[in-house]
Amino acid sequence: MSMSGLLPLLRSTSLATVGLALAACTLTGTAAAPTPAAATEQAPAPKANSKPNVLFIMIDDLRPDLGIYGHPTAQTPNIDALGKSGMVFENAFVSQAVCAPSRAALMTGLRPDTTGIQDLQTPVDKAVPDAVTLTDLFKRAGYGTYGYGKIYHHTDDNADGWTDRKPDMEKVFQRQKRKEGQEKVAVGRAANGDELPDTINVNYALDQLPKLAKSGEPFFMAVGIHRPHLPFISPNKDWDRYTPARVPAPINPEGQKGAPPWALVAYEVWNYPDTKSFQPDMPKDKADELRWGYLAAVSYADDLVGDLMTALKRNGLDDNTIVVLWGDHGFKLGDHAKWSKHSTANIDIQIPLIIRAPSETRAGSRTKALVETVDIYPTLAELAGLSAPANLEGLSMVPVLEQPGRAWKQAAFAQYGRSGGLTEGNGALTGYTVRTDRYRYTGWVTATGKLVRAELYDLQKDPTESVNRVSDAAYKSAAVELEAIRKGGWKPVRERVAR
Asked: Which of the residues are catalytic?
């Protein structure tokens, strides 16, 4: 079936046809999605359930370009409302700024050096087959576990951890387009959102929530939204929320002074026919269009978050459901004269994180505590009253939920590797990063641990990381202290947190 034949089916399909359509997917690469119950329908009262449910919303490539985080232009009323109803984490960081390692760290509670997942090729099942994943933990505790959209980088990863895992329609559409010889473009508009893969993925979740409310089954539901990952394709109405003149310019467009030449790269953005001819310098008109498209995609994702939150409330589930919203890493839009992620720059490793836990979080609360993606697993385990595996490498954030201003971690940790072809004769290097409340320090080291180069940015005086100050005599003591933290690693930092 072609894309043109698929779309009418998606618009008109009923639940009775879903099984047949999914079976056809294995033959044709296409699948149909259910249409959610109308918002005006009165949901039955949910059955009582003493265990808290979890709705985990994962958004790809989402940096904190949100109203609740102070962005001057972003139209994100639904995420803002979620933030106002729970806790906003102002200093949340990923372990590695690329999809597979970041999501593996989330779902296993283990860092990239532990899982060995530092690229896009290795699934969790292969790298750490004995890991008790987040969904494994909840499923073994009697929860139904439901996955829609992008959860892991590999759609079929951790298959045993799910009660129900629908095909990721983004992947289904991509396969069909390749089959038909259609090229993807980096940026574009859709007449409306009904035919977009993210909408279809979210509709699976919207269809499931009334059933869960009726059954009273405790659930862990993960919903992964692709946009604002490239390609930036969103409904016209989301583009129309902005004008090019209102889209903020990139930060530090001239690049980082004094940084190693391999510190920042631009891979992904050139993989599209409407951008590849411009490599390595994006012309201003195309750059402006991409930045506009990114914000439109953020607003589209926000619309879908609103659909989920409305359904949660309509089905009487909001008072007993923990909601987490998490971005898997940041993204450069010409910032530092580069594009995409794949670095340890602050704009790539800092993410939005919002948690609303009934009876635990206070509406409108915010915290500046340094937290990491690996902290989410033990936090959800504690909130649900489950015993987390002893080998988790994060720290439950429940004390921060209870006391937002309390002392917490001295630093967060991140990393990214560079092949020998990029490092000017230094061989393969890994940039290990220490992010404190004031500094971002990255030590570039060899496989044997030899320090080759370093970066030090004073975020208090230079919040856009425009100048590497590691060679500045005024920062000598800071560089020594931060290198000591890097060498010591995350364990001493975690152990020093008073519980």
From this structure: 99, 153
